[in-house]
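Late entry, written up from scratch paper. The run itself happened at the end of the previous shift, but nothing got recorded in the book at the time, so transcribing now.
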Amino acid sequence: MLYLCYSINDFSVMQAGISMLSFLENNPDYEPDEVFVLNFGIMPINKERLNSIAAHYGKRVTYLSAKHVTNEIKRTFPHLSSWRGTMAPNAKAFMDKIMPEYVERLLFIDADTLVTGSVSELNHLDMGGAALAAVPQCWESYLMRKGWLKLYSNSDMYFNSGVLLYDLNVWRNEDCNKMVIDMLRTKKQFYAPDQTLLNNAIPGRLQKQLPPKYNHNTHWQHPRQELKNLRIGNIHTEEEIQEAIHHPVIIHYTGGDHHARPWHRGCRSYRIPEYMYYQNLSPWKDLPLFPRQTSFRPGLSGKCLQIYFWMMSKQPYSALSDVTLTLCRKIEKVESRWHKMPAKMEEGIEG
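Output as recorded:
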């Protein structure tokens, strides 16, 4: 039996509530009578809103406390960073320690998603002995298959962790928790803590590739750019690509910038209408759009990245967009070193 789970704090409760509503609206055959929510600080009024959504479809929300797990991990491995101020995403790496024993197959999706189709295929999907199924990120997976990017897991796929399908029996039997802990013991820094950690910890033999319709996240780009990105490295078949674009099951509004997020002014996604439809069915139907984000990174690198995203969304791929992204990364490295200099100088003075 397939169970649904979110991991959120109060900041992302609106998006998670709208996502849950869309899931229940489009999956009337969802068998369990509960939806799991890992509670990282949800206010009572927002719990009531989530409860009302579930009750409308004859379900209930089961709130699980996961902080004791992530707090212990943070104490043991202080180098594991949070993501946008919360450890909620990191819970993905420790689901065997959080979920009840009776949960075997689990669909974990990020709050910034919509479920616009049936996930019944995932309920009966042959996992082939895998502990985890996910959609690859094409560019990173292409680089890995070329040998230009390497993971400690020696996998040839780098997946996006916004949608994860677990076989928790396999996860426990293969002791994937030990693999995660062993990776944390290396004291490596992970940019996207949950995603990069899982990609490096879980070997390829325990991963299964899902088609992109289960994590459609290129919807904010120019159509030609979107096709180019999805075709990179022949990670997906052409049929899978077209299905993801025209009939996605899960839309992922990923990204730190307003371009991909329909609850912000200035969103350029062609999937705005779907989001607004489900928001209008939700307790947040009268909530206005959030202000436009001018930059999700400070300094010159943030401005440079804005230009890059503008190019990606307004025009097809060009060499100039590649140059802009390369320049952005170089500026970011210089800025990072510059910001560290005062601390190093103070250490020298104190010494």
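Residues 339-351 have pLDDT under 50 and may be disordered.
(Scratch paper discarded after transcription.)
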